[in-house]
Amino acid sequence: MPDTLDTRLETVLGITEDAGRISLAHFEGALRIHTKDDASPVTIADQETEQYIRRQLEAAFPEDGIFGEEFDNLRLDSKIIWVIDPIDGTRSFIAGVPLFGMLLAMVQDGSPVLGVCRLPALSQVFSAAKGMGATRNGVAMQTSGQTKLRDAMLFINEGENIYANEPDVFERLTKAGKLRRLSYDCQPHALVASGQIDAVVDYNLKPYDYLAMVPIIEEAGGVITDWQGATLDFNSDGRVVSAATPELHAELLTLLNAD
Fold first, then answer.
1. Which residues bind Mg(2+) (predicted)?
2. Does the global pTM surpass 0.85?
3. Is the sign of the CA dihedral 227, 231, 235, 241 positive or negative?
């Protein structure tokens, strides 16, 4: 099989489908919960899922690097690095909320060029590779095309953290858009890519939380950056905004950075 973006995407879609069965086997069951140094929770489901993905990536792409949430990183000087979040939304998973996801990004020369966002409990997978468009369950998707913030459906992720650390920004966000919802994790960004909502403002993310969403949203026609409008990479500060169009994105940047 040739080593191309489309064959790599096909391979990792299969890997994540199988990995999703591991997390689902633990979902709504009794779980032993541990607390990591950053006070975030981790379960056996997180660990077993990431271990499976790592084994499969090592077998398929042995020269590539791996950057994961739960275990030590490997070969970060490689041209290609896989970025894994086995369960994005562990708190939702623990609480029995079926909106947790699985994220896998392929980063080449520092830029995310392939992304998979799988929602195992909803039987949904959003994926994209650079220059190949974006799909939801294999069907092409695109953003809503909304250009006006006043008419937009806006989701505010990690609202309590934004409120605690940047209350002025939070107050502005709660008055923006036509419809607002407080939300969490990767699913709202996937909804931007599929055109179901128009924008998400997010906060305090790690690279494994956002890098997979970059090709998915961009290939669907949207924009995703940090709050300053800069390209997302391993060194971004964790403040993220995704939007259906450049025009809507620009309005959100103005709101986020208002004096």
1. 69, 85, 87-88, 209
2. yes
3. positive
Hey, what CATH topology would domain 149-256 get? D-Maltodextrin-Binding Protein; domain 2 (3.40.190)
- Binding residues, as ranges, are 69, 85, 87-88, 209
Q: Do the beta carbons of residue 226 and residue 233 sit within 8 Å?
A: no
Percent of the chain exceeding pLDDT 90 equals: 90
Instruction: Quick: pLDDT tens for 156-202.
Output: 999 999 999 999 999 999 999 999 999 999 999 999 999 999 999 99
Binding-site residue set for Mg(2+): 69, 85, 87-88, 209
CB 153 within 8 Å of CB 26: no
Strand spans (E) along 166-248: 179-183, 199-202, 223-226, 240-243
Answer yes or no: CATH 3.30.540.10 is held by domain 5-140.
yes
